[in-house]
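Hypothesis: this fold can be encoded by more than one sequence.
Test: take the structure tokens below, design a sequence, compare later.
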């Protein structure tokens, strides 16, 4: 469940570590430098932009780097140098390092903050390769090594099977949302969906497809659009859902345009893209749902109960109600998106 994040805040830190390493004698082999999973707004100075090949499956980041003029792809090709931008998830980070080695890199660089687990990753690397160097700066580290035939096959991303008693089996991978099991919030929302749903539906931030499967198990659905910004998660959803009513869209849920005006939307919107909560992400999802629904359309959503979403539901929909509440989550139903003309007219009358 993903959305365009703010520009990467550690840009200067990563670039500074690279600059120090090069100034202290790190020699990069000639040729392409493949960069695995950077975030939008990152700088890789002092590396030449023409040498860089950005690999990311997160649609907003992919578009941002493409618009900035970089070579961008969904999948990596063999390259002499690979820079791994360490994510927060440990299994995801180890899988990226294994991917870098599998690409035949002569030199692998791994960069991350302490909060991303760089210390534990460095310890794991020391156990199997000779570390060429370490630069510590700004609460993070840049590490590099020459693989020289070292075996990292046990670090590769391993599919995980999830079995739901009602919906069957699903496959996930490290790095996608709720990779180890069904998210409790999504499960709660699925329990409170009506037995019959509208004909034209969308799942915004569909992930690997759990909520979509729950919708397709209900009566009434004729078309279901799965909108997901993470290409890996969307590929999993394609594997998990073979129903011909499902249509798959690699897109940012906040800006997507769909071929249908929707009768209904389900979603478990994100509220962070990193370490800090960002309720604005969920607010943007709500606004997108209101934009995509017709004037009698319905939204069903789940969110952590502390998030300030009720005001947005009241502002953007003619009515809303809470269907369920636990110590952690709230499930909402909202009906009838307000159009701008409606909001302006009401404001003028009230004034």
């Amino acid at each position: 469940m993903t959305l365009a994040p703010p520009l990467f805040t550690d840009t200067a830190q990563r670039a500074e570590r690279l600059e120090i390493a090069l100034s202290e004698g790190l020699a990069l082999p000639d040729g392409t430098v493949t960069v695995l999973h950077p975030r939008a707004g990152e700088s890789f100075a002092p590396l030449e932009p023409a040498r860089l090949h950005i690999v990311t499956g997160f649609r907003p980041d992919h578009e941002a780097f493409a618009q900035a003029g970089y070579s961008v792809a969904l999948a990596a090709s063999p390259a002499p140098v690979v820079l791994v931008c360490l994510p927060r998830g440990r299994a995801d980070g180890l899988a990226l390092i294994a991917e870098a080695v599998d690409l035949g890199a002569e030199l692998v660089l791994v960069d991350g903050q302490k909060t991303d687990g760089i210390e534990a990753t460095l310890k794991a690397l020391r156990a199997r390769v000779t570390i060429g160097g370490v630069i510590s700066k700004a609460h993070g580290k840049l590490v590099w090594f020459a693989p020289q035939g070292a075996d990292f096959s046990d670090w590769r991303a391993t599919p995980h099977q999830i079995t739901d008693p009602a919906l069957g089996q699903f496959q996930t991978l490290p790095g996608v949302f709720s990779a180890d099991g069904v998210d409790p919030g999504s499960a709660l929302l699925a329990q409170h969906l009506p037995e019959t749903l509208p004909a034209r539906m969308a799942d915004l931030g569909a992930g690997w497809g759990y909520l979509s499967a729950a919708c397709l198990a209900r009566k009434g659905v004729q078309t279901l659009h799965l909108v997901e910004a993470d290409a890996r998660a969307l590929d999993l959803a394609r594997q998990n859902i073979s129903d011909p009513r499902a249509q798959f869209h690699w897109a940012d849920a906040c800006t997507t345009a769909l071929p249908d005006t929707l009768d209904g939307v389900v979603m478990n919107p994100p509220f962070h893209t990193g370490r800090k909560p960002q309720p604005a992400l969920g607010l943007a999802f709500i606004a997108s749902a209101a934009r995509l629904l017709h004037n009698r359309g319905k939204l069903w959503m789940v969110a952590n109960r502390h998030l300030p979403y009720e005001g947005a539901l009241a502002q953007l929909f003619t009515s809303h109600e809470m269907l369920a509440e636990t110590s952690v989550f709230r499930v909402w139903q909202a009906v009838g998106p307000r159009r701008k003309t409606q909001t302006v007219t009401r404001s003028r009358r009230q004034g």
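The mean pLDDT is 91. The first strand starts at residue 33 and ends at 36.
Hypothesis status: open.
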